[in-house]
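Bug #77: duplicate submission created two jobs. Keeping one. Sequence:
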Amino acid sequence: MGGTVARWRAALGLRSAGPRGEWPTTAPDADAVAGAFAAAYGTAAGGVWRAPGRVALLGEHTAASGGAALYAALPWGVTAAVGLAPGGGVRVGTPGGPLRARESAARAVAGVIDEARRGGLLRADQGVRVLLDSDLPERTSLGRAAAAGAAVALALADLAGGPPPEGADADQRVALAARPGHAVRVNLRTLRARELPFDLAEEGLRLLVVDTGALPRRDPGPVHAAAIRSAQEVLGPLRSVDDLRAALRKLPDRRLRRRVEFEGTERHRLNAAVGLLRAGRAGEVGPVLESSHLSLRGFGLPPDEVELAVETAARSGARGARMTGWTGTAVALVDEARADRVGRALTRAFTDRGRVPPRVRAALPSAGAHRLR
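Kept job's structure:
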């Protein structure tokens, strides 16, 4: 009943309609994806590849100031059957039909194909056929489009006998570099990636990914980037600011000060988390996640649904939680034994407030992109 009322209220524009689309419980079968490729394009695929989604743990909101971010690959991802064809054309589809060129996954695939041509992996007279399937939900901050791009980038490198690709952006770098039991730190300015131990299974911990479905009316990423650029016109590069308090006094706007304060303090939080991971103390990262979320709250980024998810997870025994990415997704660090309890508490908290319950899945840091067949 609570979910029905919540969706009725959402239809009136009163609040989020909840999670969008499907979140399959099993990964696409490689043989089925290859079969769908053959049915769509009338020829066999050159192979089938898979790349993971990712969850940002810290730092992803600091790209505008050239910061760094910490990610973990997820057990859910995108499976891609890929083949070469005569002519220079590109066709990208799913088992449900062709993808429109403006869709994010299609754009990511087009980008890696262009890069493969520039790098000599594809001749001008070679076309590409791609069939994508996924067990990642759409319209979340979990890197679905980047996973599609990473899977196809690896496929093109394998088919051409070239070196492994590095990835065109931070998300693709994570998808390509990840290993089980590790996190990936990426410098968002240089895209240099480094793996760090993050063996949650060994410590009896899990990442709880919470998809509330909340979407902002306006993409907050470009708004934040524009604000940081304006601050840097006054302060210079934020990564070079040593005296944050003095720098903040030079900014007249309170919201802008909060944004700059987040950028400056997030760098220290990320460094603290990296130190903990290197010391094998992943279970102590929780308070760092909490501190990051409080700083995001300072300039109003988390939507109400994410605030409710983070607060509920904390009250229910999570070691730490924060908003991840720019939409309605949260991530919490929890003891494995408490994961179900936290999930039930989230469902109850949303239902009691007339909101559509979020989708909640537990995860361990997982493998990067690889060939399936």
